[in-house]
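Dear colleagues,

For the upcoming journal club I promised to circulate an example of a predicted protein-ligand complex. I picked one with manganese (II) ion because it came up in last month's discussion. The inputs are reproduced below in full, followed by the predicted structure.
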Amino acid sequence: MSDFTLPALPFAYDALAPQISEEQLRLHHSKHHAAYVANANALSEKIAAARAANADVDPKLWRALSFNVAGHKLHSLFWENLDPKGGGEPSGALKNLLEKSFGSFANFQKEFTAVATTIEGSGWAALFYCPKHERLFIAPIENHNKIYFPEAKILLVLDVWEHAFYLDYKNEKAKFVAAFWEIVNWPAVAARIAQ
Ligand code: MN
């Protein structure tokens, strides 16, 4: 039995063009995301097999599992965060929360863009919600699983690994980030606060 499954995209492979081309999206979902799912399942089985054989479980397996499961979960969220008819600005409670937390939507967008374009190495820009303080904040996630806030909920992520944009934008990461704002699914982001 597999613990992890590659989710189908909520849109067709060619639906996000021109911001993300069909070739880029197909490769990203069916090869990169799929590999994290396959690795997570293989690692999970390896841990279970070692335990079943009364052998020591190599602690490196847990580290690798964290990387691959986080990669799988972040990609699953990333697809939900996108919509061919998306973009623009959020409304309602999300808009209010962004204004309360960042002063304005423009400030939020500027700060998130800065985080996304300055990640060291591979990683993600993420918008978090802290339920205790009812505030939003931004942080880079390095690789898939470094920089972690135990009680905060991730609402929105942008994959800025090179594999996410290189076919379309080559070294021009800032152009990819600008295009991302045109396809953000704000209702899906807002729905995560309510969950
Ligand atoms: Mn990716």
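Two points we might discuss: The beta strands are 123-130, 135-142, 153-159. The domain at 22-80 is CATH 1.10.287.990 (Helix Hairpins).

See you all on Thursday,
B. R.
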